[in-house]
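User: My advisor, Dr. K., asked me to get a structural model of this assembly before our group meeting. I'm new to this, so sorry if the format is off. These are the inputs:
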Amino acid sequence: MRLFKIILGIAVVGPLGFLGIKEIIADPVYFLELFLGGLTRGSIYALIALGYTMVYGIIQLINFAHGEIYMIGAMTALIVASVLGLWGWNSAVIVILAFVFAIVYSCAYGFTVEKIAYMPLRTAPRLSALISAIGMSLFLQNYVMLAQTPEFMPFESLIPDFAFWEPFAHIITAVEMSIIVTTVIVMILLGMLIKFTKIGKAMRATAQDKVMASLVGINVNRVISTTFVVGSATAAIGGVLIACHVGQVNFFIGFLAGLKAFIAAVLGGIGSIPGAVLGSLVLGISESMFTGYFWSEYEDVFAFTILVIILIFRPSGILGKDEISKV
Amino acid sequence: MVTKKEIKLSFVIALWFMALTFPIMVVKVNTIKHIVIFRWDNLLWTGIVCFFASLIWNYFLRIKEEKKKSDTKEDIPIVHRLLQNEKFRIPFLAAIGLFAIAYPFVFSMYHTSILISALIYVMLGLGLNIVVGLAGLLDLGYVAFYAVGAYAYALLNLHFGISFWVVLPISALLGTIFGTLLGYPVLRLRGDYLAIVTLGFGEIIRIILENWDELGNGPRGIGNIPAPSFFGHQFNQHNSVIYIYFIVIGLVLLTIFFVNRLENSRIGRAWIALRDDEIACEAMGIDKFKTKLTAFALGATWAALGGVVFAAKTSFINPMSFTIWESITILCVVVIGGMGSAIGVIAGALVLILLPEYLRAVAEYRMLVFGALQVIVMVFKPEGLIRSVRKTYKFERTKE
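Assistant: The format is fine. Below is the predicted structure of the whole assembly, which you can bring to the meeting.
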């Protein structure tokens, strides 16, 4: 079986690699553009995937409503920015306030969703919590659609085209660059939060063993809430950034983005934070290459195909550990 | 009953929700015309609704806790008790049968047509019930198999002129094959991945149908799908609706019969056991993978059958009929009606599909309510509206 996998791997990667090198030599700038585009895309996936992987690591639940939290972040930023814009506030203040409001509101939504839909089901079978999560996702989507509008709303980019960036703008725009830089900063901060702070330690302990963690005096419920809040915050940042990049927002953007981010989290190994980042970058870049060199209509099909292939050949993902089920 | 403390808590919760929903409920921006509207009345309504909702929520949570502590044996739902009662069962079933037969002749074509779509959902719900309710596998791409059935009829008829009755078994077979093909790689995995993979598969089928113009005209879809014939005789439009109605009734009865027999068969018991405890089940010598695969493939078969009827009924299909929302609606039917309970699923399908059809004014809130109901049902009544009742065997001493 192992030999078979290796042969299959070479058979797939070999010709692709050969073709790839030929293409890169033929048009290096196009390749670079695709690569950076993929990196941007992957950064956004990473910001969302973190929430999935952290929640999954702690309570083994696929938080279906996570994509909606990301959408609400983008929506809130849009609403705050347009209200303040009409009041004629300074644009720098608007940028900061839009980000702050998006993060605060997403965190509040993440917290509330956990309290309503998941906390009463902590001891219930996994299927119940999963269905509840789907219901919550459906509810939030329709709530935003009915309260606002089903149409796409144009979103004026909060990030200006910096003058000093002008010479590089034909390869990578200022917005894309900001996305990558912000993601790196968020990742470093998050890594520090988990590695060095007390709550980070509590999170790691809870992920390993909930009962044991509560025995040594960790308030497990609070840790779970914090995990949801932190995950929602990164998703909100992702939401605002992607809205700036794409330039429009509607109630449905969370669905596909959430799915892709979930695929990225599985690709990297669900439950693992570095895995989520790696998986997101791999997915983002390979997706960008696929749409650039092959068929752009089948972009989403590509991501799902990757998911199925991963689940068959390496269900624990790139960095994940094999899970042993115990009685 | 309601203490002062609870009222205080609900008040705080209402304030929290008023703050939480402020940007989305109150502010409405129009970024094209640059207008901002503040809808302050929404704030008030949110507060009032959340206050009472929180009171009720906490009250039921408390009842649930108390019930858990007292550990009372749950009583059998009233529907089951009535159906078990011999005196009641026969007149009840006869009345339903009579009503079903008389329906298309008493009511207009419009009402019959609506009932047909509800009955298609009954079929789909019962099929999905095998997968979700009995075997405990969350399938979010159920609509893919529905699409397979519908497109199978449309294409086979378009290219080869094959009639409805021949396509029906072919598409059932196709559904089984597709179900096995998809189930084979993913059913080895842990349950929650299945939800995502099937969701992905549902979307893949839709995207392929939309982009592959040569197959099914892409987004334009396929039209002029003929209605089923009666031994070569083609009905006029009015009669063909009635005819399809009876076909659907027949198929629904067939489904109920099959599901009922399956549930109490060896494999049905294996499904239920697998849902409740996988490891114990394996220890009892049940092949986990094969059992799951049968459930998945059988569920797919019913979806494909439903698809054929749907194509014949609407006479036009395009990829828009097979979105993720369909899958979620069918899932709602199963979950809210009662997972594993055939009566629950039937009642759920009829209520959830017919109500929004007749209450057109609130139809846009349909999905919102479905979502909320899923959460509420899972939190307070995970077994659904009408609970399934496991068959019990009584040993009675015979009189000597």
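One thing worth pointing out at the meeting: Residues 40-70 of chain B form the longest helix (31 residues).

User: Perfect, thanks a lot.
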